[in-house]
C-alpha cells in the first residue's frame, strides 16, 4: 500500500513540475523566437504590469486573457505563478505576466503586438 501511495505522490509531483511546460511553448514567427500558449497562440506582455503583478482586469482581461495557471501550479525557473486579485492564477515569464489577445484568431497571429504602445510579443531569449 505504501508503494502505491508513494507512486501516486510521485505522479502528482511530476504533473505539477510539468505544468509550466504544458502551458506554453516556443515558436518561430517572422524569424523571431516567441512564446505561445499550448495551442500556439501568441503570448504578450503589458507595460502597465509590475514585476509579478497583473494590472489587467475586467474589460482588459476580456480582450487580453491571462495565461491561466492551475491553482496548484508552482514556480519553475523563470516561469512564475502570479496570483490575481480575482482569485485566479496566471503564468509570468521573468516576472512579466503573460496574456493572449482576443483578436488573434489562429496560431501565429501577432495582431496584438504594439497595441496602445503597451502590448508586446513575449520573445524567447
Judging from the principal axes of the Cα atoms, what is the shape? globular
Helix/strand/pairing category: alpha+beta
Tell me the Rg in angstroms: 16 Å
* Strand tally: 8
Signal peptide: 1-20
InterPro entries: Lipoprotein_repeat, UCP029720
Keywords: Signal
Pfam families: Lipoprotein_15
Structural overview:
With 125 residues, the protein is α+β, with helices and mostly antiparallel strands. The chain starts with a helix and ends with a strand. The radius of gyration is 16 Å and the shape is globular. The longest helix has 16 residues. Helix content is 21%, strand content 26%. It has one domain.
Concise structural overview:
The chain is α+β, with helices and mostly antiparallel strands and 125 residues long. It has helices at residues 2-17, 19-23, 59-63; strands at 24-29, 32-37, 44-46, 68-69, 79-83, 89-93, 96-97, 119-121.
Top keywords for this entry?
125 residues; alpha+beta; 4-stranded antiparallel sheet; 8 strands; globular; disordered N terminus
Give the topology.
Elements (H helix, E strand, L loop, with lengths): L1 H16 L1 H5 E6 L2 E6 L6 E3 L12 H5 L4 E2 L9 E5 L5 E5 L2 E2 L21 E3 L4
Antiparallel strand pairs: 1-2, 3-8, 4-6, 5-6, 6-7
Amino acid at each position: 500500500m505504501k508503494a502505491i501511495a508513494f507512486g501516486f505522490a510521485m505522479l502528482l509531483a511530476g504533473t505539477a513540475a510539468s505544468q509550466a511546460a504544458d502551458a506554453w511553448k516556443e515558436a518561430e514567427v517572422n524569424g523571431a523566437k516567441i512564446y505561445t500558449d499550448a495551442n500556439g497562440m501568441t503570448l504578450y506582455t503589458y507595460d502597465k504590469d509590475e514585476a509579478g503583478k497583473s494590472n489587467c482586469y475586467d474589460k482588459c482581461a476580456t480582450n487580453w486573457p491571462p495565461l491561466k495557471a492551475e491553482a496548484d501550479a508552482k514556480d519553475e525557473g523563470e516561469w512564475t505563478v502570479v496570483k490575481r486579485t480575482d482569485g485566479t492564477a496566471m503564468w509570468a515569464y521573468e516576472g512579466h505576466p503573460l496574456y493572449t489577445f482576443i483578436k488573434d484568431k489562429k496560431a501565429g497571429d501577432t495582431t496584438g503586438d504594439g497595441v496602445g504602445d503597451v502590448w508586446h510579443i513575449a520573445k524567447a531569449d
